[in-house]
Design goal:
With 625 residues, the protein is of the alpha+beta class. Helices cover 58% and strands 12% of the residues. It starts with 20 loop residues before the first helix and ends in a 15-residue tail after the last strand.
């Protein structure tokens, strides 16, 4: 495809359309020939053409080259326009203006198409096709036609609407028909279409398309014109986008030539010229849209199919060579695929397990409820989970397995259709973990202090909050929480550096400890520049008052802070207190306090904000503001 071709780069590598004498001469000849044909065969019709192909030709050459080479191609295009007008002896003054308008149109379209730095390389991708249609087929021709209408309408006394349409429609159709064909010819797809194994098929299909086009327009009749669509769709399906867009100029040339010379196109036997042209232009537009839409759908489906096949090939290669056991199941847990790694680990052959379910076979009965719950969570939250469970080997002994569970989806609908399980034997690790558990718990008990500030660390905070929450549930007492955040601490670090930032955090912790004196209260570093204070048996009013004391204690220390509006370090504090009911969770208290902290920062910082909440007497916690 054209997307695979190597465009000209600034390093000096040559592209087939690169600017050199041979290319410029060829472009000049093509522009003169295309313009001459357009002027020659519309001379008897006030030079009203069904489509104007030279703009599409020139636009394609601009898109194939970097911007620094555009002036040369534009100069060649303008020269070709004028020479063709001289050859056909058309009105030079008018056509001089029209040539300038054509150059402006092509330049604007090319600039709009390349201004993002991304070249229009493959029109089988919907974003590029839409950009080409918008900028190349609509905006560029519309701007050129409007400019030409303003220049030429008054001397010829032509209604501006008619003049605009006579100029816009041929240019738009010419770009839509010719530019993609030229882009395709300079891509790699034609090399494959005309390779030794496909050359005969390609020539046969293109010849069929040309023959049907000539036959349909030479015999006349409205319905015969649409005989072109079946072979055109066949060409697109067999030869792809390149074959379809290469065939469009042949259809356009045959249809335009015969329509201008009074062959019938439309329900009227011999309608007036403008009616014939409008019917022809509508027909050509339908041809162009059909080719591009069918190509877009065809290539998107082919890319999707190729990607699916490649993914399947890679999956099987990885699964069959992986040391971990890979299992695919449906949503009910029935196994659809088991990788060969199951044999050395569990002793089962894959065929022994395919079709079975964890509900009835190798997973230990005591672990099946937890396994089912994990599957339900993966399906509900669409998030991978890891579970450790016992699995029976073929000889009857159980081993510990660790499995990563996730959903996999249908490649077409993207709907979940099953689970992927990647499992490994962790029996040795499990035994080592059990042996080290006591030592680990001892180490955990020692690691409860934040090394920087000297207050409790986050782990100690979580344990204490859980303990106090359960105690408050049993006793029916109020539990309060303060969340403290240092205002604009990032800018403090940026201004004074991280060393002073660490010192500032120690000062905040000291200020909090200065105010919080009860032995049951816990001051902890919550994370980063945030601190938390757990206040058992404390109502909301008392907690808010304590928070205000902490805020004032921080301000009394007058820690310089040029990035904070008061000029010193301040804190924002979120406060909440609840009487937790049975069945509720401690994390609810943190969420409430965090909401209050957010409100304090939202209202200007350096303040204590309280959010009132209530929890139901049983069941899951609910929140009201």
């Amino acid at each position: 495809m054209y997307s695979q071709m190597q465009l000209t780069s600034d390093t000096g590598r040559n592209h087939p359309a690169a600017q050199n004498p041979a290319t410029l001469a060829a472009l000049l000849i093509l522009v003169i020939a295309a313009s001459w044909v357009g002027l020659r065969y519309t001379a008897g019709f006030d030079h009203i053409a069904p489509l104007w192909s030279t703009n599409g030709l020139l636009l394609a050459f601009l898109l194939l080259n970097p911007v620094r080479r555009w002036p040369g191609f534009l100069a060649i295009g303008f020269t070709g326009f004028l020479l063709s007008h001289l050859i056909t002896r058309s009105a030079l003054a008018d056509n001089f203006c029209l040539s300038l308008c054509d150059l402006a149109e092509v330049t604007l379209a090319a600039w709009l198409l390349t201004r993002s730095g991304k070249k229009i390389t493959d029109l089988t991708h919907s974003p590029q096709l839409l950009r080409f249609a918008l900028y190349g087929v609509l905006i560029g021709p519309a701007a050129g036609a409007l400019l030409a209408t303003l220049i030429l309408r008054r001397p010829h006394a032509v209604p501006w609407r008619n003049a605009f349409l006579w100029l816009f429609l041929p240019d738009a159709l010419g770009i839509a028909a010719v530019a993609p064909a030229v882009l395709a010819l300079f891509g790699e797809e034609p090399l494959r279409l005309f390779a030794s194994g496909r050359r005969r098929k390609t020539l046969l299909l293109l010849s069929l398309l040309i023959l049907v086009s000539i036959t349909a327009f030479s015999t006349g009749g409205f319905f015969l014109s649409f005989l072109i669509f079946p072979p055109l769709v066949l060409v697109v399906l067999e030869l792809g986008w390149a074959g379809g867009v290469i065939g469009i100029p042949f259809i356009a040339f045959a249809a335009s030539l015969m329509t201008l010379h009074r062959y019938r196109v439309g329900p009227l036997p011999y309608p007036p010229l403008l009616q014939r042209l409008l019917v022809l232009q509508a027909f050509l537009a339908a041809i162009i849209v059909s080719v591009n839409v069918v190509s877009l759908v065809f290539h998107e489906r082919r890319r999707h199919t190729d990607l699916t096949r490649e993914n399947e090939r890679r999956f099987r290669m990885l699964a069959e060579n992986a040391r971990d056991v890979i299992v695919l199941t449906d949503l009910d847990g029935r196994r659809l695929y088991v990788s060969p790694a199951v044999t050395p680990i569990l002793g089962w052959a894959p065929r022994d397990l395919v079709g079975g379910s964890f509900h009835t076979d190798v997973i230990h009965p005591d672990d099946r409820p937890a396994f089912q719950q994990t599957l339900d969570e993966v399906r509900k939250f669409d998030r991978g989970q890891i579970i450790i469970y016992r699995c029976r080997k073929k000889g009857g002994m159980y081993v510990w397995m660790e499995a990563s569970l996730s959903l996999y989806r249908d490649s077409l609908t993207d709907e979940p259709i099953g689970f992927v399980k990647v499992a490994r034997d962790v029996s040795r690790r499990k035994a080592a973990e059990e042996e080290l558990q006591n030592a680990y718990e001892t180490l955990e008990a020692m690691a409860i202090v934040d090394a920087l500030t000297g207050v409790a660390n986050r782990r100690r905070f979580d344990d204490a909050l859980d303990h106090e929450w359960r105690r408050a549930v049993r006793s029916g007492t109020s539990l309060a929480l303060l969340l403290i955040d240092v205002d604009h601490f990032k800018s403090y670090n940026d201004i004074y550096g991280h060393v002073r930032g660490d010192a500032c955090l120690r000062e905040i912790a000291a200020a909090a400890l200065e105010v919080v004196r009860r032995s049951a209260d816990i001051v902890a570093r919550f994370g980063g520049e945030e601190f938390a204070v757990i206040l058992p048996d404390t109502e909301e009013t008392s907690a808010a008052a304590l928070g205000e004391e902490i805020r004032e204690a921080v301000m009394r220390r007058e820690i310089e802070h040029g990035g904070n509006q008061p000029g010193i370090v301040t804190v924002s504090i979120g406060c909440t207190a609840v009487v937790p009911p049975r069945g509720s969770k401690a994390v609810t208290l943190v969420e409430f306090a965090d909401e209050a902290l957010y409100q304090a920062k939202h209202e200007g910082r350096n303040r204590v904000k309280t959010r009132r909440h209530s929890l139901p007497s049983a069941g899951h916690p609910e929140e009201t503001a």
